[in-house]
Amino acid sequence: MHQRDELDRAIEAAAREMARASHAVALVGAGLSAESGIPTFRGGEGLWTKLGEPTFDGWELFNEDPAAWWQRAIDFKEEFADFNRAIDEARPNPGHLAMADLEAMGRLAHVITQNIDNLHQRAGSRHITEIHGNRYLVRCMSCGSRDRLESVRLDRLPPLCPECGGFMKNDTVMFGEPIPEDALRECYRQTALCDLFLVVGTSAVVYPAAEFPVMACRRGVPLIEINPEETPLSGLAEVVIRASAGESLPAIVERLKAGTSRS
Ligand code: APR
To answer: Which of 48-52, 118-122, 217-221 shows the lowest per-residue confidence on average (mean pLDDT)?
Structure first.
């Protein structure tokens, strides 16, 4: 973690970059929701650091037998009860609220989030791409249309798409599952448009999400990393804020509002 004066300098530098930028894009990971009580996956306190990584055969199992996959998801709901309860009870934290403020101030054009917890929307952010889906939605594997999970009837498995009759699956993207085309297209579009890239609360080890900041950096776009721990992107970052998102992002908003970071 940064000492106070180092942290202040990093926050000031980040605010200056944000004041100068005209199309800032953020890649967000589980670390932003950690302060809402949702465990991260990796890193010191990560769920998988403690429990070991889960098997990554969900996508294969779904394709082999979608009905059996849904039945298992219903039967084993308890297995992830703690994680699901943490998400259901979670509220947006000051980090989410600060990102919504930055959007409202015209300082943050788009958020690419790896989180499925819907907290950006609840904080008031509008320009969001959920590259790993949203846990409150289902998606058709044929036409890609989405619907609210609560609206899906489970008396017949797998649920079928009302639009095209295709198999529905929860919108959350499983390992090995292709990223939904509409989401991927928007991520590449935003990466091509951006003139500043923030990387907030992600270990930056999962692709294609971790690729976007690297692609921007290759174009000479400055990166700002906000993460208490080092990541593979730290060495590429123009500004590194070794602190929590819940502390750093509101501090950047305050500096921008005070106008102390005129470029
Ligand atoms: N503020 C900012 N960053 C934090 C905070 C915090 N308060 N607490 C933890 N972090 C950092 C950790 O240091 C770590 O680098 O957040 C990062 C979380 O990393 P992961 O747990 O790997 O989460 P993420 O990067 O989002 O994982 C990417 O992998 O598990 C899959 O699909 C899942 O979307 C997820 C993807």
So the answer is: 48-52
Residue 126, judged by CB atoms within 10 A of its CB (0-12, 13-18, 19+), counts as exposed
- pLDDT mean over 108-120: 98
Ligand 1 centroid to 38 CA: how many Å?
A: 10
Give, using CA atoms, the residue closest to atom 35 of ligand 1.
Answer: 114
Band of pLDDT at residue 240, cut at 50, 70 and 90: very high
Query: Taking a C-beta distance cutoff of 8 angstroms, is the pair 119, 36 a contact?
Result: yes
| Cα–Cα distance measured from residue 45 to residue 212, given in angstroms and rounded to the nearest whole number | 26
Whether ligand 1 lies within 6 angstroms of the CB of 92 is answered as: no
Domain 1-38+91-133+178-263: CATH superfamily, name plus number:
TPP-binding domain (3.40.50.1220)
Q: What is the CA(155)–ligand 1 centre distance, in A? A: 36
- 132 as an active site residue: the answer is yes
Verify whether ligand 1 is closer than 6 Å to residue 206 (CB atom): yes
Domain boundaries, given as residue ranges, for the chain: 1-38+91-133+178-263
Pairwise CA distance, residues 28 & 51, whole Å: 23
pLDDT band of residue 263 (cuts 50, 70, 90) is very low
* Ligand 1 atom closest to the CA of 42, numbered from 1: 21
pTM of the model: 0.95
